[in-house]
């Protein structure tokens, strides 16, 4: 590693089948008014709502209901949540759900005591919070985003056709998260595999960049191998507790700020996927699955070109390493470039095995939407190639 860094992750995690028993101890630390944040109703069907309400009631809390957080939470819903928190003088935001509820809770937390409009302040001007932050706790029911132990809060604005993530600092990260793998067993297969791919891609976004020898890449390879292994078991038998608990723990480590220490990171798959999501409202993990292979193939193709230089060499070397270390592709008789492509072929086969959606057309995008999605795509500079606006549009076309 060549860089210097500070590392602190303040989120306390309670993991396992009985993890909810720790909720009461956490609740003691906060005032009486708890905003109970949840989604479209899955927690009422699978009983998690009742379990959480029982603890809140036993602890003497006043429950302020805030249900109906949609997947890809919107700025309108965010403004509504902020108003609820203000009206009830809320002491704790308790998100019970997936990344959408956790992200939403964080976005509310930094906006309650702030006069500015949250979209303008955090998602247009990218300012940091300068007001009192209401604490957030999570009970996770959907695995994938890593939101349970990070500062990310992704909000969608349908009016401006933007889906943007603000990564807040440690003060906004959840104070605690309850991780009970049993809670994820009621997820539909579609959501389970979308979450698995989201985890995998979070690791890729931090792996496919840089040329230095970094411990992060070895950690990433281990996490990817564990995830591939457990995903195959879970795909065959979604009720396999051991596989689902491994997947849950991998998701947390894939995006809790550890892997990105002293590394440049890419995140262009997410930028492309989020832009597609802003136009289609499709499931996050599926948007990533649809754009990944065209993007990665384009990277290798560009890196193999004559003018690619040292960055191109590092790119091919990393994709070749991905093939041998993650997918165990034999290097025998293959050039480095062939190995790089072979790794992507292995990735593609696994994605198909899981039943992921592999193109944007199935997610509701069409040729006439490409330019608009390209306009919504934020171009980042940390990966092996800085794309032009035209290259973004080409990759999106190949993803249809
Ligand atoms: O709304 P309900 O009825 O609860 O249903 C949800 C929702 O339809 C359902 N679900 C959740 N737990 C369930 C369940 N169904 C049955 N049983 C359960 N136990 O699953 C659906 C998806 O939930 P959602 O929270 O939207 O999924 P996810 O966790 O993938 O979160 C997606 C959001 O997180 C953002 C995404 O962009 C998207 O907006 N992300 C956040 C990140 C972060 N904080 O760092 C990073 C990610 O890259 C991502 O961008
Ligand atoms: Zn993601």
Summarize the structure.
The chain has 400 residues and is an alpha/beta fold. It is 48% helix and 10% strand.
Write the layout of secondary structure elements.
Layout: E1 12-15, H1 23-27, E2 33-38, H2 42-45, H3 48-58, E3 62-66, H4 75-87, E4 92-97, H5 99-109, H6 118-124, E5 136-140, E6 152-157, E7 162-167, E8 176-179, H7 189-207, H8 215-236, H9 241-254, H10 268-280, H11 284-303, H12 309-326, H13 336-354, H14 370-376, H15 389-398
Parallel strand pairs: 1-8, 2-3, 2-4, 4-5, 5-8
Antiparallel strand pairs: 6-7
Bound molecules: 5,6-dihydroxy-NADP and zinc ion (ZN).
Q: Work out the helicity level.
A: 40-55%
> How many whole angstroms does the radius of gyration measure?
21 Å
Which ligands accompany this protein? 5,6-dihydroxy-NADP, zinc ion
N-to-C span = 38 Å
Which consecutive residue ranges, at least 5 long each, have pLDDT under 50? none
Q: Which of globular, elongated, flat, extended, rod-shaped describes the shape?
A: globular
SS-based class: alpha/beta
Summarize the helix and strand pattern as letters: EHEHHEHEHHEEEEHHHHHHHHH
Profile the largest sheet: 6 strands, parallel
């Amino acid at each position: 590693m060549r860089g210097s860094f500070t590392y602190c992750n303040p989120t306390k995690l309670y993991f396992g089948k009985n993890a909810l028993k720790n909720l009461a101890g956490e609740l003691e630390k906060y005032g009486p008014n708890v905003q109970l944040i949840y989604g479209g109703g899955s927690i009422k069907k699978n009983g998690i709502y009742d379990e959480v309400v029982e603890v809140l009631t036993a602890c003497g809390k006043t429950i302020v209901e805030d249900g109906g957080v949609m997947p890809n939470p919107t700025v309108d819903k965010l403004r509504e949540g902020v108003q609820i928190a203000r009206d009830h003088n809320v002491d704790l935001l308790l998100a019970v759900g997936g990344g959408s509820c956790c992200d939403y809770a964080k976005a509310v937390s930094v906006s309650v005591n702030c006069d500015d409009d949250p979209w303008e302040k955090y998602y247009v001007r990218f300012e940091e919070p300068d007001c009192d932050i209401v604490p957030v706790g999570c009970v996770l029911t959907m695995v994938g985003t890593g939101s349970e132990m990070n500062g990310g809060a992704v909000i969608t604005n349908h009016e401006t056709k933007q889906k943007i993530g603000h990564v807040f600092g440690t003060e906004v990260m959840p104070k605690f998260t309850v991780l009970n793998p049993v809670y994820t067993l009621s997820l539909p297969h579609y959501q389970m595999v979308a979450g698995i791919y989201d985890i995998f891609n979070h690791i890729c976004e931090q792996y496919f960049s840089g040329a230095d020898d970094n411990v992060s890449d070895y950690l990433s390879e281990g996490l990817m191998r564990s995830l591939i292994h457990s995903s195959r078991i879970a795909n065959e038998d979604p009720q396999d507790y051991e596989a689902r608990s491994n997947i849950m723990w991998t998701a947390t480590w894939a995006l809790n700020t550890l892997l990105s220490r002293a590394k440049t990171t890419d995140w262009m798959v997410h930028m492309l996927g989020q832009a597609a999501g802003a136009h289609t409202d499709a499931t996050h993990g599926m948007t990533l699955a649809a754009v990944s292979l065209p993007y990665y193939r384009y990277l290798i193709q560009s890196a193999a070109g004559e003018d690619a230089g040292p960055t191109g060499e590092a790119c091919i070397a990393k994709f070749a390493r991905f093939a041998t270390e993650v997918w165990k592709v034999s290097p025998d008789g293959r050039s480095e470039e062939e190995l790089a492509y072979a790794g992507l072929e292995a990735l593609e086969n696994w994605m198909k095995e899981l039943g992921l959606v592999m193109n944007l057309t199935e997610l509701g995008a069409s040729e006439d939407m490409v330019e608009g999605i390209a306009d919504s795509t934020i171009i980042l500079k940390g990966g092996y190639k800085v794309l032009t606006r035209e290259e973004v549009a080409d990759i999106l076309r190949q993803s249809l």
